[in-house]
Amino acid sequence: MPRDRERPASPTREGASVHFAVDGFAADRVEALARDHNATRFMVVHAALAVVLSRLSGSTDIAIGTALAGRGDPALDNLVGMLVNTVALRLRVDEDLSFAELVAAARRVDVDAFAHSEVPFETVVDAVAPQRTGSVPPLFQTALAFRNITPARVELPEITVSELENPFEPANFDLLLTVDDDGSRKPGGDMTMMFTYSTELFDEETVETFGRHLASVLRAGVTEPTRVVADLPLAEVVTAAPVVEPTTPAAYSGPSVVTSFASAVESDPDAPAVVIGENEVSYADLDARSNRLARWLAGAGVGAGSTVAVRSGDSGLDTDTLALWWGILKAGAALDIGRVAPDVIVLSGASRNGSRAPLILSVDDAADDVAQFSARPVTYADRARPQNGADPALVLPTGTGSVGVLTFDELSGIVSAELDRLAVDYESRLFATAAVSTVSQALRALVAGVAGAAVLVQDGAAESLTDVLLDQWVTHLFATPSDLSAVDAGEFEDLAVVVTDAGRGDSESCDGFADGTEIDVVPLTSTGIGLAMRSS
Fold this sequence. Notes:
Elements: E1 15-22, H1 24-36, H2 41-57, E2 61-68, E3 85-92, H3 99-115, H4 121-128, E4 142-147, E5 175-180, E6 191-198, H5 204-223, E7 243-244, H6 257-267, E8 272-276, E9 279-282, H7 283-299, E10 307-312, H8 319-330, E11 334-336, E12 344-348, E13 359-362, H9 367-371, E14 392-397, E15 403-407, H10 408-421, E16 429-432, H11 438-451, E17 454-457, H12 465-471, E18 476-479, H13 481-484, E19 497-500, E20 520-523, H14 528-534
Parallel strand pairs: 4-5, 7-15, 8-17, 10-11, 10-12, 11-14, 12-13, 16-17, 16-18, 18-19, 19-20
Antiparallel strand pairs: 1-6, 2-3, 5-6, 8-9, 14-15
Helix pairs in contact: 1-2, 1-5, 2-3, 2-5, 6-11, 7-8, 10-11
């Protein structure tokens, strides 16, 4: 294990504790995985802890200790005394196994060890490690315990009894993971844990990172049990790419983007929200889809403070992705288009390969579950956590290795300002080429949704950009200079605004494109979202 300090020759056993939790969705999945594989919660956590220790130590041979009650014989039930015995659980972490297979391996190891728990630990130590030093715990340095005993209460007439805290917190091992398992956790409730550690070896920040690693591996493993151990992610420790808060305009006091979207739906529910060739999706339909998705996300613990990235197929900003984006915002979470370690990643028609966030949710796999949720407007009572205007709403790439974060108030103010600047209203029809950035796609989706305008999506036919602009009566175009070099601005009577995006190029410049026309050309970097990207 990586340590902050060398092990002292004469340890004092002084310790401290770090508390952390696995979210309710993952905790429920721990229960389900244990049940499905005839295992216990202990065995699932044992497997996840072994993965973390293997990654940190570089070894695949992981020994973890645990204490057993030592009352296997019924004749000992009424015997007063300390009969606890310690056993070592030796698990080989094969990274080619799936997490479910590793849990099965942990189950075999644990059951076998428990069957021999009557053998005194000292006897095992003498047989296995007769030459040892007092500075290192024998056989294992990390222990695992499930705390399933509720605190005792003593009530006596006219006497107040209280428990005194021990000012000295001993660390008998380098690390001790304690999991609260007293039966009080309800479905959807967090699974609380605690690392007790030797302060002579570790700093608090180091052990907090261990806790995040364990929560990440456990969450990923129980969410996708068939995922190979090698792909289970440790928590990302961000050092080179800190999150920076952009300089923002004056405080915004108007309606949020979510409230404005609801107003657009109420104003004209039958208006086209998405147009794909000759097919249309109404605002009422898009609203219903996003409401169901918001409740599904909330049921998975996604809410205020969560950052969610959406990985879709190659079709770009289609109806499903648009519904997901609005569902994330309605759940009170932040839409992450900066691709920097989101808390949650939602898959829709997308490959499961590549880097992952700790919690992966698949809309495709959960389609039947999502359909069961109500399509009625989402209220505060439906969210996983209370949400307010200061909570993050959009995570943006800045191009400097960091990310920018816009709160709901900041994002709502920017979208409101761009609505006026770009002259978007309910009659507008907004199209974006495939070459523009996700930031342009987000700006288009947000201003259209707030105004009740139509987002146009190419239906896959091999039409030229000129044909699309003419046939679909495009009023607002999001495009790169390269896209614009292939069209003649003078041909388009409906086109009023062009937002230029460098895309993968180096410049937004398209000098001369709108000469002789009334088309307003707006560089993306001059918009409120563009300025937020550049603020770092």
